[in-house]
Write a structure and sequence with these properties.
This protein is an all-alpha fold. Helices cover about 75% and strands about 0% of the residues. The termini are far apart.
Length: about 120
């Protein structure tokens, strides 16, 4: 499945998700509270995976014992990232490819200066 197909799958899910929150609305200056909500939700998922990792690092669990939970939380983060990108009308694929190119140039320069 391509990223574009995943975005369409998420859009379809959001259109059919019944809730008081407008899950599939475009984010504009007139509904910035939707952006705020999605970012808080994303941060919450990040917090959940961070909490699991914290417990692994301090020795409560082994990584393999929590790998599935970590996968689920990362998938939740991915879903919110997809939502944010399409609701903000961001071409995530093009933006990522542009950013990776910038990072390649940036870190190529960094590697040369550390030699």
């Amino acid at each position: 499945m391509t990223l574009k197909e995943i975005i369409e799958l998420q859009k379809e899910f959001d259109r059919n998700h019944e809730s008081k929150f407008p899950w599939n609305s475009q984010i504009t200056d007139s509904n910035l509270e939707n952006l705020e909500f999605l970012l808080v939700a994303f941060a919450g998922e990040f917090g959940e995976v961070s909490n699991i990792v914290k417990k692994i690092v301090r020795g409560d669990y082994l990584l393999d014992e929590k790998r599935n939970e970590i996968s689920e939380e990362i998938a939740d983060m991915f879903a919110y990232l997809i939502k944010l990108s399409y609701q903000l009308n961001i071409d995530l694929e093009a933006t990522y490819l542009n950013k990776i190119q910038k990072n390649q140039e940036k870190f190529k320069h960094y590697e040369k200066s550390n030699c």
